[in-house]
Amino acid sequence: xxxxxxxxxxxxxxxxxxWRALYFGTVGAVAxxxxxxxxxGSDVIVARFMGFSPFMLLRYYATIREGSTALLMSSWTFxxxxxxxxxxxxxxxxxxxxxxxxxxxxxxxxxxxxxAGIAFGLTVWIxxxxxxLSWIQPLINGRAYILExxxxxxxxxxxxxxxxxxAVVSYSFRNDVEQD
Length: 180
Known about the structure:
mainly alpha; 7 helices
């Protein structure tokens, strides 16, 4: 059946090309937000596994803004700083990831999409930890708290979880835009 109504109905299932960036950006931002919650949760679990208080790794992340005062156990302002920072950066980077890989022929299969997500998460870790924070945090706070206090395998593992979650959440939306 190829009536005008049928054609109109099938076109309701996809987003027009002109809305591609907005659609995939929104999907990516939501997926990045959820992936950021996963990374924060894994930070809490890993901290307990390492024998720290549950929010100790989040305190180290909050040193970016607060410096050594984030490490004081009497203050809980660190949590808001770490939470907002992870949610904002995670959502923005999630939008970037989904804009890059969605609708691309190379990433149609789940394993490739998830592999790209994990590679993206690890790239975020390397860039943030070793290219940005290694010199910015000592300039701002006098010390690289994150690099000195968080083992590399924790940073790599939690960012791989971020990428995995990002890919799994956004995978089903990858073809929702009109193709040529």
